[in-house]
């Protein structure tokens, strides 16, 4: 069955080059996916979008109007719901093996991308390049290493280049271009034994953390969950900012782990980043040091966060934050 599908797919879609996995959430294209399209366009080859599952079907119309996209492939079917990597990976492998014209496969550096990319690499016996922040040429990319303290320029000698893209490093591609052709892709039997059980989503009226232009983050210095909510939430509301946190704050139960900023959390680069009670551990700095303006509030004048802050206030956060919130 797979061989027949591969031959049919190869005949129907000739000479395609870069494939980009486009994710959707809540009926919208994720900002990280739009940034991945921008990275793909800088490679200089035609870019084809792949959307999958019910979430993907809901945004096909918008994906078809993304600037830089020349075609959209749609993989329908409930098996691709929730973007299970065990289901997506065989599909992507078959598409990439269907034609010699594929040269690149890019995915957002999201939780989905980080799960899908290594599986596709293993299936194709190809070494992926993770978290690229710059495209030097079609085979050379820049990526951070050592928690962002150094940048490595990596040249891939693979015939098919696989890479994930750090969303904060590329401007999101715009929508509104003339709609391109949309083509369905048949489901692929994966023999997967993994099933989706459930999820607990934190809903908030705040902007989404990864794409917000302003972020207010709290650290261990807030002492407890009550103080975190009493100080961080009102300040974020006044600034119309997303709420973030350090790993120490998350591990201590101050907030949900979806708000974690850092090497093992989300990487953000907003216009304004306000760090409250954040000491400045290297793992946290790796996730926010590319912010345009960093404001730090901490009573310890020796805190490492002040080394990267544009504006620093040495003060008791229990007094300074409410005063700042009231004046705003």
UniProtKB/TrEMBL annotation:
GO terms for molecular function: electron transfer activity; flavin adenine dinucleotide binding. Its cofactor is FAD. The keyword Transport applies. Binds 1 FAD per dimer. GO terms for cellular component: mitochondrial matrix. CDD domains: ETF_alpha. It is found in: Mitochondrion matrix. Keywords: Electron transport, FAD, Flavoprotein, Mitochondrion, Transport. Residues 18-200 form the Electron transfer flavoprotein alpha/beta-subunit N-terminal domain. FAD binds at residues 220, 246-247, 260-264, 277-284, 298. The keyword Mitochondrion applies. InterPro entries: DHS-like_NAD/FAD-binding_dom, ETF_a/b_N, ETF_a/FixB, ETF_alpha_N, ETF_asu_C, ETF_asu_C_CS, Rossmann-like_a/b/a_fold. SUPFAM superfamilies: Adenine nucleotide alpha hydrolases-like, DHS-like NAD/FAD-binding domain. One of its GO terms (biological process) is fatty acid beta-oxidation using acyl-CoA dehydrogenase. Belongs to the ETF alpha-subunit/FixB family. PANTHER family: ELECTRON TRANSFER FLAVOPROTEIN ALPHA, ELECTRON TRANSFER FLAVOPROTEIN SUBUNIT ALPHA, MITOCHONDRIAL. The electron transfer flavoprotein serves as a specific electron acceptor for several dehydrogenases, including five acyl-CoA dehydrogenases, glutaryl-CoA and sarcosine dehydrogenase. It transfers the electrons to the main mitochondrial respiratory chain via ETF-ubiquinone oxidoreductase (ETF dehydrogenase). Heterodimer of an alpha and a beta subunit. This is Probable electron transfer flavoprotein subunit alpha.
